Amino acid sequence: MAEKICVAVRVRPSISEESPSGTFWKIEDSRISLHKLHGTPISGLSYAFDHVFDESCSNSKVYELLTKDVIHAAVDGFNGTAFAYGQTSSGKTYTMNGSLNDPGIIHRAVNDVFQKIQMISDREFLIRVSYMEIYNEEINDLFAVENQKLPIHESLERGIFVAGLREEIVNNAEQVIKLLESGEVNRHFGETNMNARSSRSHTIFRMVIESKGIDTGSGDYSSSDAIRVSILNLVDLAGSERIAKTGAGGVRLKEGKYINKSLMVLGNVINKLSNGAKQRAHIPYRDSKLTRILQTALGGNAKTSIICTVAPEEVHVEETKGTLQFASRAKRITNCAQVNEILTDAALLKRQQLEIEDLRRKLQGSRSEVLEQEILKLRNDMLKYELEREKLEMELEEERRSHKEREQRIRDQQLKIENLSSLVSDGDRSSSQDSMKESPKDECNDFKTPCFKETSNNAFVAKRSNYSELPDFSPLPDSFSNVADEDTWFKMNKGYIADLDSLQTTPARKVQSFPPQDITPDCSNDNYKLELQNLKTQLELVIKEKVELQRKHEEEVQINSRLMGEICELKQELDLSNNSLESSKQRYGNLEREFQKLKEERDSLLQTVSESSKNITFLTDQKENILKDLNCEVQRRKDLEVEIKQFSVAFASRQRSLASIHGEFKSKIEKLRAENLVRY
Ligand code: ADP
Ligand code: MG
Questions:
Q1: Closest by alpha carbon to 75, among 131, 132, 130, 118?
Q2: SS3 for 532-549, per residue?
Q3: Averaged in consecutive runs of 10 residues, what is the pLDDT profile of the chain (680 residues)?
Q4: Mutational test site, ligand 1, from 10, 12, 14, max ligand atoms within 8 Å of CB
Q5: 56 is in an annotated binding site
Q6: Which of 54, 89, 240, 320 to mutate to test the pocket of ligand 1 (most atoms within 8 A of CB)?
Q7: What angle do CA 270, 276, 280 make, to 5 degrees?
Q8: What pTM was estimated for this model as a whole?
Q9: Ligand lying closest to the C-alpha of residue 90
């Protein structure tokens, strides 16, 4: 039912000793107006409300006249809100919390709720309380200091609520009062200037009253199965004074900005609501935490009472005017409160709806998203594994190639070492032969290769140029084949350049053609010595080279074995990644199957939902038809009744006329009989 918000103004006792010099606020019944001192009211500054309480008024009276109905209605299942609005030090906290001698609205409400529910014997109650503070647009839990900066959420089941806020289940008023006291302690925690904070923060004490009819076995399902849930907010707002008056910078300015925001939005909301239904297109509840929490209390499904506290002192006239204007606007707001009753069927339907919603969300949202993400991840992993595998294969190929090259090199080196070894042993032999000869005379003008062993008939040899110097000794290896390798030749001759022009076959020369006696018998001894010396030096060099090559060979062998180890490891790694790729593929397949199954499930659920809704429409139609039939029947019955009545009236008159005819007949017969008797 639509009803106006209940608005009252309360003037607190004057604190200052000064008596007014220009104007004063005059209270007459439910009207407050600004008067000139000893004079007339100032026009335009007279306001009427549901109640105006003067300085002598107690909290008890305020509660009785303004809030009690809201509290009682809350017990009966209506949402309720009572809040105090006004500038700092105008008496908001005094009104809400009260003093030792005169408890405030919150205490009285708590006591009243418990007293009232004790008197209701046919319902059982569950009461939960919470206490929060909005400070700098952040919601903090006053029952649990650790719960800070709580978010506001909205759900089908709970409506608008503060997520994570501690709710205490309570059984008696004392328990609530104790909790409130502990909440106040939390509020003081860490605060150096409590007053500064309290004037800048909004506190909301909230009671959730749930009740259910006790089953009396009367069979009255509609009342005993109904669950009522109502929310009661008791709010002590921050000071409504303009920020300029606080005159502070820094942190306080920031605080001020936020209070301004919350109260400004509250003002906007109230403005818009007071403009009437036509202009209530968009109400900016979402613009501040305060209005969002109080959304149902303002223009919604709630019974609301506002107490606007004002200070009587002349210095506060401007602020008081502001408060009274706010109160006037609030007075124009219409709320539409109704009992929040959930019938069992409705609750069932609601729960089913929620479950379907939940399932849908799971299917459409989180579950499938999770699956899709997992599939994506797996796909990525698979790609990664494949790339890795390709890389590893490439590396392996590379390794194989370099391994082959190395082996080839090693083989070459081995060959060289063998060649050198044989060369060295030949050299040794020849040098020892040379040394055995005391004075070998060798005069060779064409070429000089004294260490020639057996040479096949068609072997090539290079002829020393006639113009060149005496060449270095150039021994040939044992395994020297038919064709002398130019490189080896070059190396062995230590830079000797073959005169390729004079290359000739020496078929005629045989081993026997180099007998010692034939070898340049006229060569000088010195020359021979020199040659021997050269030979020795060369031999040393070759030995050194051999040692070096052997060392290199060993190194290469080591590197090779290490590489073989690495290749083995790589192979193992490749196997492993192949395995994990395989298992990923399997998991991917499984997930895709699951996803498919879920999709099917969702489709069938959607099918069921649509069938159910079809059924519901069909049933509703049927019900309507039956109702129509019933109405027709009722109408017919009524018509019949009317007809019966008319018939009985007609019947009665007929009866009467019949009776009179009967009487007449009787008298006539009597008469006739008498006549007959006379005749006979
Ligand atoms: P607010 O919460 O609006 O800042 P308070 O409730 O703290 O203001 O009131 C400021 C001072 O005035 C307090 O000391 C309080 O006790 C006193 N006061 C306020 N209203 C009344 C009242 N109606 N009767 C007696 N004292 C009051
Ligand atoms: Mg206060």
A1: 118
A2: HHHHHHHHHHHHHHHHHH
A3: 88 84 89 88 90 96 96 94 94 95 96 96 92 92 93 82 93 95 77 65 94 67 66 93 53 54 86 70 88 87 94 92 94 83 58 68 64 70 75 84 87 83 64 45 39 39 38 40 42 42 38 41 67 84 83 82 81 81 82 85 85 84 88 91 91 91 92 84
A4: 12
A5: no
A6: 89
A7: 70
A8: 0.54
A9: 1
